[in-house]
Amino acid sequence: MPLAFAVPINAKAVVALVLFAAGLWLLIRRAETRRAFRRAAWVVGPAALAFAFWLVNVLSHGVEMREFDVTSHILAYLVIAASFTAPLRTPVLRIGFSATAAVLGGICLEQHYVEGIDRVYGINNGLWGAIEFGMYILVLSLVAVAQALRSDLRRGERILHGVFALLGLYGALLTQSRGPLLAFVPVFILVVLIQSKRTGRWREGLICLAVGVVGAIAAATTLHGEVFNRFAAVQEEVSTYSEQDATGAVRERLEMWRTASMAVRDHPLSGVGLNQFGSYARARIAEGKVNATVERYDHPHSEYLEWAVTGGLPGLAVLLLLFGGAIAFFGRHAFHRENAIAIPAIAGLSTVCMYALCGFTDNVFYRAMPHSLYFFLTLGLAVYVGLMLNRAARPAGVR
Questions:
Q1: In a shared domain, residues 95 and 181
Q2: Interior/surface letters 58-78, b for 16+ CB within 10 angstroms, e for the rest
Q3: In this structure, what is the dihedral angle of CA atoms 227, 119, 70, 324, given to the nearest 10 degrees?
Q4: What is the pTM of this model?
Q5: Where does the record locate the signal sequence feature (predicted)?
Q6: Domain boundary among 201, 224, 247
């Protein structure tokens, strides 16, 4: 599924349909599946609330239903999550997720070194997709890092996960996406520290951190300074931004955030409606209140401002509950003594943290690819953790 989200093949919908049918059957027929959902309520509940909230928002604002298209997929992933309670071959699952990071990283390498694309963006997006593609690969790479630090796996498989993670990380670096790369650093440290504490292998964890730092510096150096130049440009653009001078990626963000703040003040409770930030901004441009440099944007480049603008402060509260509930659930179980519970919890925690951090400077849900990855992983992993927790709590000999 993670690979299917990232490729432009219509037939991938068949895979999702099969999992949807399987999930629906499991929900109807298996009490164990339903119990797993109840155990995962801190993740499942806010996702269901988000679906209902945006449906009401669209209907109350008279917005065309096509604007609800991507958001409506949440309902599908709520059902697909039940498929994680089916008998799974976990070695295939974990290697498959890590290998996906490597495949997508390989696509980045091909685009940069063969096609000569300076800032790679994957095969399911145009240039505007570089940021979300970078975040996408980093999320899967973090899952591979967690697997590489598992003490219960054979050495060969751990090395394989490490190699896959490095390929994904290098590919993400080639996207030159500042927000995801900055967000990755604390989440990477978090994953390493959790695994080091769980296993007691602090030396191995420190080596992993050192390899990550050295590898990132070496990789950035091979890019002839493009990554460093993009980061260096941030301070200059911030210091020179004004309402009259809003040209450049950072200045345009600042102008969009100023516009979003205006929208929240104008519509604090109801918002302007799902996906209607662009219309609001262009209306303010026509009034001379907003710089015309942001006319082409339909989203404010901040997921938090997006939900506050389009859904009002209640919308922002739903987003905070969506992230907060998942962080609380996965964080609580990330230190569990059983790898069958802790590893999927760590994978879920790193996914949520990446999206929550990237959401400060970019929209992470408005396109189908990153939207699908988030809800597929967080809902599925939460239900899987719930299943494992319920099984662990059974008295010996009870099936």
A1: yes
A2: beebebeeebbebbebbbbbb
A3: -10
A4: 0.93
A5: none
A6: 224
